[in-house]
Amino acid sequence: MTxxxxxxxxxxxxxxxxxVKIVSLYQSADKVYARKVKGLFSSIQRWxxxxxxxxxxxxxxxxxxxxQIVWFDLIERKFYVFHWVFWPQDFMLLAxxxxxxxxxxxxxxxxxxxxxxxxxxPQTVWTLMFMWAENVCEGDRLKRIKLDRAPWNADKLLRKxxxxxxxxxxxxxxxxxxxxxxxxxxxxxxxxxxxSTEFQPLFWTLFFTGATYMNAGFMREQVCxxxxxxxxxxxxxxxxxxxxxxxxxKRGEGRGPRKKGVDYRANGLGDCxxxxxxxxxxxVGIDIRDGLQYECINCGYCVDACNAxxxxxxxxxxxxxxxxxxxxxxxxxxxxxxxxxGYILGVLIMSTAFVYTMATRIPxxxxxxxxxxxxxxxxxxxxxxNAYTLKINNMxxxxxxxxxxxAGDYExxxxxxxxxxxxxxxxxxxxxxLRLDPLALQVPNADIVFTVEAIDDPEVRDTQESRFxxxx
Length: 472
What we know:
single chain, Immunoglobulin-like
């Protein structure tokens, strides 16, 4: 009897391959044991994020005019940043600032790739702090691998506990500082350590402590690979002249060990000794020799490691280096490209407009609302009257007395408080009535302008247009 063997169709083969692909998405990630490295880029990284960390942890503790120098008071809906006070209606300025930051990031990405991720991203910075704790408590890469494989004993328990204690301390200080930007941090700290804090500050402090602990302690490179959107769309901003960490294949291949001082090229070898140090120091666990990968954060650790090996072998540095695709292909590099110039020009224009807006920003706002119950009325002596409610918002940092002025084509008789005291951060409502002889009004309605100006500083003023309405 002849056996019949079914030959799978192309559709069945595709379905089978698709199943394999789907399953591979759920493979567990291997733990990355990053090796400590010293060099130019690791030093630049350390000195680039130390000022940022200092600013983050110290700013809430600095006092200015009796308050924190940076304080987002959600209850009062006031946001203090140095000597400025921002209100919910100023959120357009925040959106503007975020757009400027986004375009600046795009310009940097076009020019020098993903250096934001490698040198200043909070996820990278806090991960490196946690890795520092690992090195202190458990040793360098090989010792950590050996410790994880070893059975539990007193030494392992002590080292692991010390690491966890440092992690929790860093995470707690991070969470406390973050909440301290929204609650006065000095009082918050006292309340926490005297067990008298309210539920909400305590909850958010513990929440951000846990988030920091998980992100920097366990998720680490997984955040960069799968959660960060920047890694996904960065390739759309790259071009052949973008400066990236790259491996020079022409110079490095083929790979292999060799003895120092031997003519390795006669044996068909390149400069790469295949020591894998570039992989061991990588915080995201990739091999830069495989080419450009979206996981690469351009930290430059592999460059430092490779340069150290090149020095020992007495080879020229730069087998792995910050370079461009055109330079690797021995073509002329174009630094200034239309895309980069466009981003830079956009950032300059928006930044100039933002600085001008902040410099000319007036800390008072007036809003005029007409009486909705009646467009106009006649008084007992026959005068035509319109009523207006003025909302004066003192957005400054001090109490001020404001003068109310009315301008128009007619000389109105003004009834109501002409001068009002508005406390810092308050919105004051005042009623103003305008009266006019009906025979003097030659049109059904007339344009008027309300002006509110500070008595002590006439430059602090705001205007609002309205209309005076009479019978048709």
